[in-house]
Amino acid sequence: MKERKPHKVFLTGPITPQFIADSIAKHSIKTTIGAHDIFLGQVRRDVIENKAVHAIEYSAYEEMAEEKFHELREAAFAKFQLTCMHIYHSKGKVKAGEICLFVFVSSKHRSSAFEACRWIVEEIKNNVPIWGKEIFEDETYVWKENS
Amino acid sequence: MKERKPHKVFLTGPITPQFIADSIAKHSIKTTIGAHDIFLGQVRRDVIENKAVHAIEYSAYEEMAEEKFHELREAAFAKFQLTCMHIYHSKGKVKAGEICLFVFVSSKHRSSAFEACRWIVEEIKNNVPIWGKEIFEDETYVWKENS
Amino acid sequence: MNSRVRLFGSLVEIVGKSELNVSGCSDTQEVKEKLASEFPQLRKCEFLISVDRKLVKNNQRLEPGNEIAFLPPFAGG
Amino acid sequence: MNSRVRLFGSLVEIVGKSELNVSGCSDTQEVKEKLASEFPQLRKCEFLISVDRKLVKNNQRLEPGNEIAFLPPFAGG
Prior knowledge:
C: 77 residues; 2 helices
């Protein structure tokens, strides 16, 4: 089996549309790819007890999270017919409307990309030690809970 | 029900990463969105009888296709809890490695975006009158068949 | 009655043009037969027929001004 | 034996720091009890425990040098 170099998942602050465009552009040389599925998590301006979320501040048990991401990556390649996969997650502050999660899966045919992308997002939500503080305009906060 | 303006689906030539980035960026003001799912179709350099596909030239029954895209859009909004959806398809020549289809679905929670995106891509493949000529380096070609 | 027939994809090459007129046909089945007798290769082709941009299930009576189209298997995406 | 315990998310606020040392515990259950008696609010918190970055199912014996962590419910994505 080809050894896949674990890459850095955490990026400080929001994931920019330009970063996403650059990632997409890099795949034009991989001409066995027919389908990409991209999931983006965007911070919602949820209203909690009359206060609107202004930003989420993400923190993680980074060493464990990077191990989990690596396991998840190996499992995804074993489970699905993939050409490429990339995961990026923000750490630090991400404002409402900005992007905090970028999962990018590429395959020859669309079904593998779709299935893998969805599976990966669920795995991240359930099994990777990341936390978020939902910060309001007045700087009070609550700890985010995943639904 | 809110009237949704049908937008132009066909773009001449490949869909660029920059176009995708600009579309993503426009959604940062929509702060009820928590999840985006983006599907990209990329032209594969398939080898058919020892000749590699250099490009696909897309053509469509445009008037009918635009009607179908509009119906599909209305059906998707009725069927799934969506905030936004955009579909772009190339016409004319798209080289191997370039992007010919961009489906962009946004919703509050991830499951609607995932389900809608996949549904829309299948609908496009099955029900929209678009054709593609797979052109080889030597300018011979075959008509593409969807799998 | 004169009917306008549009052709797409591989069918354009078989017929040699992307549009033609047929006369004296009262339904889509007759249009199909008429063109197939003129262009026998069409009999080997798989295609659907639309009238005014709606797919025809079996056969459909034609009205003046209908736009008929012959559509080979779709290959978008 | 001295064990290093790392805390994350909301638990950092309850304990007042992100890392501490506990002594005299031979398994994860003992660490949990010891910290809960010192910080009673922990009893109301939902969290998992990891040892050397692997989640502990029930209880786990500790070895010198193990890194223990208390992990509130994950909220990534």
